[in-house]
Amino acid sequence: MAEQTENPLRDAIAEAIRDNEVILFMKGTPEMPACGFSARTVAALQSTGAPFAAVDILPDPRIRQELSALSNWPTIPQLFVKGELVGGSDIVTEMYESGELHEALGVEAPEAAPAPAAADPAAPPLGIENNLR
Amino acid sequence: MPTTDEIKQRIESAIPDATADVEDWTGGGDHFRATVVSPAFDGLSRIQQHKLVMDVFAGEIGGPIHALSVKTQTP
User: Fold this and answer.
1) CB proximity A73 to B under 8 Å
2) What is the predicted ipTM?
3) Range of the domain at A22
């Protein structure tokens, strides 16, 4: 791949997307988002409880440039799941509200579906039989 | 600086049978919110639908249009 030597930054971004199942490119950090759109997206992601990697694009303007060239998506934030661009803050928020985000991240949606039978409150707690007599 | 009408017209002429509803989100003339309804979105993923709209303003988002918030629907 000739590109590999010509554009190490783009390769590093592509690698990060490949190596992290859920990765968010944002302005600022999850602890301290530097833009309302990034903040909204982080909040939606965090409330699913799914782990995610986050990259702050602000320290170097080339990160954003290369990311957008790679993803063909003009704005930040950008969420990737399993190597695919899912969307920016509008799409992530919409998916969060509909429960699709949980599904995409492989976590259970809150109240969207009733808890499966395993959580039946009438079921006895895990039975530990005492055989030590 | 683009106006909400201009953005509406550009979306409607670029996407087949689209109707767009565009608001100036912050009143500052650079953050817009567009709700676009078009049969062209049928069968596309959300990201593909949004891309159709974003592509109308390729190169302007992040520039004169600081942010364009998009919601897409099929009729």
Assistant:
1) yes
2) 0.76
3) 3-106
